[in-house]
Description:
173 residues; alpha/beta; Rossmann fold
Amino acid sequence: LDTACAVGGNARWMASLYGCQVYGNDIDEQALAVARDLAEIENISELCTFVKAPVEDLPFDDNTFDMVMTTDVYDPTEVKRVLKPGGSFIVVSLFEDPKVTPLQLAESWGLELEISLDVTDLAFAFNRAKETEARLLHESKMIGARELIEIMNESIVPYTRGGRHYILRLRKN
């Protein structure tokens, strides 16, 4: 399951790479339509099912999935519910509270932490590139000063407060 999948990038990647049945959920029907179209173009539509559903109310039975993956948007209670025992939860996210460790998060979610990779430097570099792109858009008069500042603040503020970007692999016992 690729939860909060948007255009289904993770789901489509897994289907292409492993030939496995994948599901994706999101609340944006337009994004889901794009996900379906891209799966069709990539000749993997028979492996991909995309459904409109919020992360807080997944329309799947308990213990359905071997793996759940997400980037930034998820509900750990729902993830744990739909994961099979022994299943993996892969999460890529910015964790803004520097006092909370990945191990503490895993324990608070009732999951076992298997891998924790701090990718803050990589994420920060990506956000700096986004900032450069915004400056170019501003210089080209395609966005205003307010939009430029919003993009810059969104990219930098969480890190100035000690936020860390992690890739975590957790397991349901």
